[in-house]
Amino acid sequence: MKQLILVFFLATIFSCNSQTTEKQDKEAILTVMKLQEKAWSANDLEGFMKGYWKNDSLKFYGSSGLTKGWKQTLDNYKKGYPTKEYSGTLTFKVNDVSKIDTGSYWVMGEYFLKRNVGDANGVFLIIFKKINGKWKIVADMSC
């Protein structure tokens, strides 16, 4: 009987520790975005894309329409921002992070690109999903 209680107690502790709070989720998502700012600002587009779900089902919706897939999204970024002069320095202003469901959040905000070739600013709505224990962007609408 004591062993059964011990097993139940340990199982409860491990199951509680594996779940995160909404505050922890939001902090982890914002950390991904901070890493993206740094990578983009270094013209490291592959590093920037580490925040995205590396899957053909990734969706990006922007001024050029809908792009499907991680590789196509990266290719579009490389074409539009071929050098540091074009990628500039990226800053996000996050206006809202809201839970959609267990394991998914939306983030609404603004982006600011400071560049020698002319600044570019806009708004975004991105959807993060926890995949294999990591927060990844599965959909992005930026304009």
Poorly predicted runs of 5 or more residues: 4-17
Overall mean pLDDT:
90
In DSSP terms (H or I, runs of 4 or more residues), the helix count works out at: 5
- Across the major sheet, the strand order is 2-1-6-5-4-3
Element order: H for helix, E for strand: HHHEEHHEEEE
* Helix/strand/pairing category: alpha+beta
CATH class: Alpha Beta
Radius of gyration: 19 Å
Number of domains: 1
Q: Tell how many strands the DSSP assignment holds.
A: 6
If you consult CATH, what is the topology? Nuclear Transport Factor 2, Chain: A
What characteristic shape results from the CA principal axes?
A: globular
Distance between the termini: 62 Å
Q: Main sheet? A: 6 strands, mixed
Gross CATH architecture = Roll
Share of residues in helices: 25-40%
Instruction: Tell me the fraction of residues in β-strands, as a range.
Output: 35-45%
Brief summary:
By secondary structure, the chain is of the alpha+beta class.
Folded structure, characterized:
- This protein has a single domain, classed as Nuclear Transport Factor 2, Chain: A (Roll).
- About 40% of the residues lie in helices and about 35% in strands.
- The protein contains five helices and six strands, in the order H-H-H-E-E-H-H-E-E-E-E.
- The chain has helices at about 1-20, 20-40, 45-50, 70-80, 85, and strands spanning about 60, 65-70, 90-100, 105-115, 120-130, 135-140.
- It has a six-stranded mixed β-sheet with strand order 2-1-6-5-4-3, with helices on one face.
- Strand 4 (about 105-115) and strand 5 form a beta hairpin.
- It is globular, with a radius of gyration of 19 Å.
- The model is unreliable at about 5-15 (pLDDT under 50).
